[in-house]
Amino acid sequence: MKKRISTIANLVQSFNPKLVYDIGCDHSYLTSYLIKTNQNLTIVNSDISKNALLSNYQKFKNNNNIHFFVSDGFNNLPELNINPKIGVIAGLGGLKIINIISQKENFINRFVIQPQSNLIELRSFLSLNSWDIVNETLVQDREFIYPILVIEKLKKPFKLTKELVILGPKLINFKDKHCLMKHYQCLLRVYQPKQKPSLMDLKIIETLNKIITSYESS
């Protein structure tokens, strides 16, 4: 978990924000990491679980820059007048991330997101709804490989090809090819067992098999 959290934190810090919204903060590990390097950073932690937030509040109650809200996504979050701001949604399923950033209350145009599932469906949504994937990386933490994306809202639509939705427009040039192929193999195992695959499922299987075979024969 340390490597995953530190990678998310480093991506957040690369934008030099003054305000961070950690949506679905769970145990507020990200807040703990961020305030070690920037005591002046304002951080809003939100979670659907009141009990989780109460436990986190006890750890940070003496820091006036750290705030806590029980909220399902943006439903109960205040828009603080501090800029630049960035949102983080990490450790939730891809469909839940889609739900959150689609909420009409959403006031954030840049996020670091780390989906636990439905990565391809998430990329497809981003492409169809004017969200640009400006960065994407993989982090291997113990036996798990986590995709982490930085996304920004565009003023004009920008659609990815099906192949780039499947493979990732930034991941195709990922330097650690061994880690990348392990990631693609994990994705392939999600789609292969389906009894009634859709046309998109078949395209995903074909595309992943093709790039994995190409790597193994090189």
Q: How would you portray this structure in words?
A:
With 218 residues, this protein is of the alpha/beta class. It has 2 domains: 2-160, Rossmann fold; 175-218. The protein contains 8 helices and 7 strands, in the order αβαβαββαβαββααα. The protein has helices at 2-13, 29-37, 50-60, 94-101, 119-128, 162-167, 177-191, 199-216, and strands spanning 19-23, 42-47, 66-70, 85-92, 110-115, 131-141, 144-153. It has a 7-stranded mixed sheet with strand order 3-2-1-4-5-7-6, with helices on both faces. Helix 3 (50-60) links the parallel strand 2 and strand 3. Helix 1 (2-13) packs across helix 2, helix 4 (94-101) packs parallel to helix 5 (119-128) and helix 7 (177-191) packs antiparallel against helix 8 (199-216). The chain starts with a helix and ends with a helix. 33% of the residues are buried. The mean pLDDT is 95.
CATH class descriptor of the largest domain: Alpha Beta
The proportion of strand residues reads 15-25%
The CATH architecture assignment of the largest domain turns out to be: 3-Layer(aba) Sandwich
For CATH, the homologous superfamily of the largest domain is named as Vaccinia Virus protein VP39
The strands making up the biggest β-sheet line up spatially as: 3-2-1-4-5-7-6
Secondary structure tally, helices? 8
Shape: globular
Estimate percent helicity: 40-55%
Sketch the topology as an H/E string, one letter per element: HEHEHEEHEHEEHHH
Instruction: Compute the number of strand runs.
Output: 7
> What does the largest sheet look like?
7 strands, mixed
Average predicted confidence as pLDDT: 95
**Structural class by helix and strand composition:** alpha/beta
Q: Termini, distance in Å?
A: 33 Å
CATH third-tier fold name of the largest domain: Rossmann fold
